[in-house]
Design a protein that fits this description.
Blueprint (H helix, E strand, L loop, with lengths): L22 H13 E2 L4 E2 L2 E3 L7 E2 L2 H15 L11 H11 L8 H13 L5 H11 L10 H16 L9 H11 L18 E3 H18 L2 H17 L9 E3 L4 E4 L3 E2 H17 L5 H13 L9 E2 L3 E2 L2 E4 L6 H14 L11 E4 L1 E2 L1 H11 L6 H4 L7
């Protein structure tokens, strides 16, 4: 994968000007070059930032999903990398979805990326998708990310002129309406069960994006309203330094736990959602986007940039005592929910860093900022000089 930074000299206004990328976009492309696994033709699950000799860690079922996410981002890049056979990479990795134990949301990403790139799904992938989308009984096992990505992908295909996918759009949205709406304006994580009310920031982003896409394509203002209500609630719960909390109670609308605070939410996923909020003229959407992004530059509890040398980013700020102890995080969330408490920020000295970068995170940068020219304080920031 040959990344060629684009830094063209100024030209007269009437001259033909080659497309060029913002500094931020070239920064992410440079990082993706480090995550590339040439033999497998995909980007890696994790690039470790702890100095180990072989920093790339491959987990095939994750690699292929992350690769499709990166391809989605590349669909918005003005000057994509030289020597990258996007058609081949897409076909190979979309086919792998049928042979690996991936979550259903990975198929939704294949739909979405294929639509944005103008590429047809491989036959085996399309067949498996149609079987899944034709069986509402199978949807009962969906988590929010599964439903959100599949509905977004279906809507994107319809927008791209692939009308054969239209039949699935309304049933998926009706399922979302019936089973995933929280009482607070936030979305739930599952259609039923104990896990339902405990929803992540990703839950909110994926289902809100799905509603925006569906509302736009199907001309359904009720879907757009659901998404905008969620966005307004999220903005009200944004932290004092722009942090997007990780865990919410979809019933009460409270933050259950701020941590981990993920960099990708700050610079990628929240901007992707807030782009729609800006279109809908939701007051404060741009300010929330900018404040959240500035967290990455160092306006955060640790007072340090979340950028690593060579186009990479640091994954998150975490509680030092927990690391990967998901049981402790779950116990805190359940306790706060039952006792009616809200989670808050803790002292900076109790925080640490998760020293890794994941390729899909850089893909979200490409998607959210590949076409933006209105926020140069972010996209042309000196922090992204290579």
């Amino acid at each position: 994968m040959n990344i060629r930074p684009v830094d063209l000299p100024a030209q007269p206004a009437d001259a033909a000007v080659a497309p060029q990328n913002a500094r931020l976009v070239n920064y992410a492309l440079h990082g993706l070059e480090k995550c590339w696994l040439p033999e497998q033709e995909r980007w890696s699950h994790i690039y470790h930032l702890d100095g180990r000799a072989a920093p790339n860690e491959s987990l095939p079922r994750s690699d292929v999903f992350y690769t499709l996410n990166v391809l989605l981002g590349l669909s918005r890049v003005a000057a994509p990398p030289d020597g990258l056979d996007v058609n081949r990479i897409f076909a190979r990795n979309a086919s792998e979805l049928t042979r690996l134990p991936v979550r259903k949301y990975a198929f939704g990403m294949a739909l979405w990326a294929g639509a944005e790139l103008g590429l047809e799904l491989p036959g085996d992938c399309a067949r498996e998708l149609r079987i899944l989308l034709s069986d509402p009984n199978a949807w009962r096992d969906f988590h929010a990310q599964d439903l959100g990505m599949l509905l977004t992908g279906v809507a994107a295909q319809v927008r791209a002129g692939q009308s054969a996918w239209r039949e699935f759009a309304a049933p998926l949205f009706r399922f979302l309406q019936a089973r995933f709406l929280g009482e607070s304006g936030l979305f739930c994580d599952t259609p039923a069960g104990l896990r339902r009310r405990f929803a992540s920031f990703a839950t909110q982003v994926y289902l809100s994006l799905a509603c925006y896409h569906y509302g736009d394509v199907m001309d359904d203002p009720s879907a757009t309203t659901l998404a905008s209500q969620c966005v307004e609630k999220l903005m009200a719960l944004q932290g004092p330094q722009g942090e997007w909390p990780w865990f919410y109670d979809a019933v009460s609308g409270r933050v259950l736990d701020f941590y981990e605070v993920y960099s990708v939410h700050q610079y990628g996923m929240a901007p992707a959602l807030l782009e729609w909020a800006e279109r809908e003229k939701i007051p404060g959407a741009t300010a929330a986007l900018v404040k959240g992004f500035e967290w990455v530059f160092g306006a955060n509890q640790l007072g340090r940039p979340m950028l690593a040398p060579g186009g990479l980013t640091i994954r998150s700020q975490i509680r030092k005592v927990e690391g990967d102890a998901k049981v402790l995080r779950a116990a805190r969330a359940i306790s706060n929910a039952l006792l009616g408490r809200s989670g808050g920020l803790i002292a900076p000295e109790k925080l640490g860093l998760r020293l890794e970068c994941r390729s899909y995170e850089l893909g979200w940068i490409l998607w959210s900022f590949g076409r933006r020219v209105d926020l140069p304080q972010l996209t042309e920031n000196d922090a992204f000089s290579l």
